[in-house]
Amino acid sequence: MPHTIVTEVCEGVADCVDACPVACIHEGPGKNAKGTDWYWIDFATCIDCGICLQVCPVEGAILPEERPELQKTP
Length: 74
Description:
The protein is of the alpha+beta class and 74 residues long. It is built from 2 helices and 4 strands, in the order E-H-E-E-H-E. 23% of the residues are buried.
């Protein structure tokens, strides 16, 4: 099951983007409620490797399950 980036928790650090082996993490348009850049995971491409969870320094920004209601997807 793919992981989820919680849009309103993400702070746009983007360590996950470089770490992702399948390039399934993309920058979202505009800012989130916190006023920061945010990223989203393409559920169709994610291979559930968990590297994003390991490298993200923002607690609660990435969840280990698919939760589309918490992630804006452009």
